[in-house]
Write a structure and sequence with these properties.
The protein is mostly helical. The chain has one domain. The chain has two helices and no strands. The chain is rod-shaped.
Length: 60
């Protein structure tokens, strides 16, 4: 009886971990999608600024 309960807890824990991972991945993909739409220009500007600033310090 105790072993059965432990097995049930083990399976429940795996399902919970899987659900949390799925939820986290869904939130992360939604967040990435939101970021790519909202801050695409800002990200390109920052990347370009740091890129050219790093390779061309005189240009700043």
């Amino acid at each position: 009886m105790a072993n059965l309960f432990v097995d049930y807890l083990h399976v429940a824990q795996h399902r919970l971990n899987w659900n949390l991972t799925t939820l986290f991945n869904a939130i992360l993909s939604t967040f990435r999608h939101f970021l790519s739409i909202r801050f695409r220009r800002l990200a390109i500007f920052c990347l370009g600024y740091f890129h050219f600033g790093y390779f061309n310090p005189q240009s700043i």
